[in-house]
Amino acid sequence: MQLAVLGTGMVGETIASALSARGHAVMMGSRARDNPKALAWAAGRARASTGTFADAARHGEILFNCTLGSATLEALRLAGEAALADKILVDVANPLDFSKGMPPTLTICNTDSLGEQVQRAFPRLKVVKGLNTMRCDLMVRPSLVPGDHDVLLCGNDSGAKTRVATLLHEDLGWKRQNIRDLGDITAARGTEMLLPVWLRVWGMLKHPNFNFRIVVGDAPTA
Amino acid sequence: MQLAVLGTGMVGETIASALSARGHAVMMGSRARDNPKALAWAAGRARASTGTFADAARHGEILFNCTLGSATLEALRLAGEAALADKILVDVANPLDFSKGMPPTLTICNTDSLGEQVQRAFPRLKVVKGLNTMRCDLMVRPSLVPGDHDVLLCGNDSGAKTRVATLLHEDLGWKRQNIRDLGDITAARGTEMLLPVWLRVWGMLKHPNFNFRIVVGDAPTA
Lengths: 222, 222
Known about the structure:
The structure is a homodimer of 222-residue chains. By secondary structure, chain A is an alpha/beta fold. Chain A is built from ten helices and eleven strands. At the A-B interface, strand 7, helix 9, helix 10 and strand 11 of A face strand 7, helix 9, helix 10 and strand 11 of B. Strand 11 of chain A pairs antiparallel with strand 11 of chain B, so a sheet runs across the interface.
């Protein structure tokens, strides 16, 4: 499949590498066509390419937004509405605010989310929020944490969520029962707001190799 | 042990009943000494009593704040600093905002939390945020959801957290390894901000009988 990753940071590189290793034709998109990190990533890698955000948006059937939350809307504007069109965008970004020091807070939360902002700015784009609740190594290799644990998806387009779930299952190794569909894109408030508790669990464990699992009992009878 | 529950709603009644059934002398506190719900709860129940918020604060070694988040600070002011003194307060409340319709949003989040507000307002009080991330039946009977799943505690006083953890284990049936200490009271931001994702999981499952589990892998070597 033709896939694209927007962003050249650690998250983008991790996802692009994993998808490329599965044989997909992955383009890494960035602001400038001669981005050295993108060129270094693509060098010697089969079916890997680089380009602008617009190039990448045109290339991919499914796009992964791995830009910083603070840069996401600008990156998508640079890609342009025509190139984005009605593509599927997996929004992996979190709206982190480092301006108040560490730990980061959120620039958007509670009554809105980055996922919703992206969907409102590009109404034709099929935004699927997902993978944003864990460290990036785990996104592409869920077996790094043993047993069942969940990846949370949401978005307005059911078909897009189904395609993303299939890719997560077939290419990244997520078990079907651990791919959870929380509903429409407004659920991105919930998954983005996991960041503060995620940071505290990291602090408790002293490492980030963990994930959340939804453990379900029987429906109450009363 | 002498324990107190502040609040006569479903959460307060559930916790008070469970602790009373374990043989503790539980006082249910409310605004007025003749609160009919509190009187009905205590009627015919061994070692159960009722009183004002101040009566309850004086009675209990450990207090459970089961008032609405919007009423918590006022309830504690009614209890009074003298009665609260350096007691342990388990803050079960969430700062829910129903004014914008359903689902509720939060009145406080991201850079502050209800738990922190309570701690700042009553500096001597040993606030332990906890139990606020699940439905109340599960708080007092974790076996309603099978297997391992977690209750998240935080607070500035280690001794207070240890006492609360012991009570959760011995009286409410929480396994030791499922009682997670996330650190100081600022972690209440994280646990209170679980509310939006909790609501979406409820919507997905169509029932509230679930909980979150932190699933941990090995520390990364790189």
